[in-house]
Amino acid sequence: MSLHKFTHLLAQTVEELSTYSSLKGVFHEHRDGGPLPSGKVLKEIIELCRSILFPGFYGKSTVNSHTITYHIGVNLERLYGLLTDQILAGLCFASEEGCAQNKENESGCNKHCKEKAAELAAAFIAKMPELRSVLATDVEAAYNGDPAAESYGEIISCYPIIKALSSYRIAHELLVLGVPLIPRIISEMAHSETGIDIHPGAQIGHHFTIDHGTGVVIGSTCVIGNHVKLYQGVTLGAKSFPLDENGNPIKGIPRHPILEDDVVVYANATILGRIRIGKGSTIGGNIWVTEDVPEGARLVQKK
């Protein structure tokens, strides 16, 4: 069928899709020098981080004790360059002025953003030894928590929780440093990759693990202690939140649970609101919890 026959319809649709009212809220206007962060590059950044944090398991498998310094050095150098560029894109996105490159602000906003991006990238890289240390405890927790696991190497290579946690801990550090947008992109990439949804704003202690993992949701203001274990399908979420005088949701308030040390939450449990699950408690599967649970409690369905 001839395209000419529908030329008027196509032109009309183009016009409707280009109107301001249609674009409001869904259009990011590109400014020179201020592109959005790239999902493709952020994926490479995550892979570089994993190859540095778990050398030999990610990246080049031929690395050994004689080449490890060179391997980490090359990857860190590339990571610094890529991360600086992506943080700059995030800063430009968040800036009201867009950090556009032009004669008026070439030496102003843009220069400041470039310097800040480089500073933030360096600050993140300085945190990587600490990230590796805490991720090592997560590997240990996953190994000790699963009788089917035969080695730490199997945990690192095969278990989705390590991919999810490495992405979460990277995103969390970037969020703490004040990097805009990128932490959320990284967390949603991990969500797509593993089925585990951990908001980068959550605070999670050491020796944390999730068995199986699929369908787990951890909200932005969750606080999780040390040696905590979750099973698949667990939701650590919020109840309905208050609205302001204009009917808009009030943001920035703590609205997700606090899980103290040594808590175990079994499959498909739902824990909602700013409640406290006491140290050493066990929450059984398929339970809806909206009130505080005392230390050492065992909450299960009634027979």
Q: Order of strands across the widest beta sheet?
A: 1-4-7-10-13
**Approximately how much helix is present in the residues?**
40-55%
Distance between the terminal alpha carbons, to the nearest Å? 67 Å
Overall number of strands: 14
Global mean pLDDT: 90
Residue windows where pLDDT falls under 50 for at least 5 positions: 97-108
- Count of runs of 4 or more consecutive helical residues: 9
Can you walk through the features of this model?
The chain is an alpha/beta fold. The protein has helices at 7-17, 20-23, 39-53, 68-94, 109-126, 128-144, 152-158, 160-177, 182-194, and strands at residues 197-198, 203-204, 209-211, 217-218, 223-224, 229-231, 235-237, 258-259, 264-265, 270-272, 276-277, 282-283, 288-289, 298-299. Helix 3 runs antiparallel to helix 4 and helix 6 (128-144) packs antiparallel against helix 8 (160-177). It contains nine helices and 14 strands.
Briefly characterize the structure:
This protein has nine helices and 14 strands.
Element layout with pairings:
Elements: H1 7-17, H2 20-23, H3 39-53, H4 68-94, H5 109-126, H6 128-144, H7 152-158, H8 160-177, H9 182-194, E1 197-198, E2 203-204, E3 209-211, E4 217-218, E5 223-224, E6 229-231, E7 235-237, E8 258-259, E9 264-265, E10 270-272, E11 276-277, E12 282-283, E13 288-289, E14 298-299
Parallel strand pairs: 1-4, 2-5, 3-6, 4-7, 5-8, 6-9, 7-10, 8-11, 9-12, 10-13, 12-14
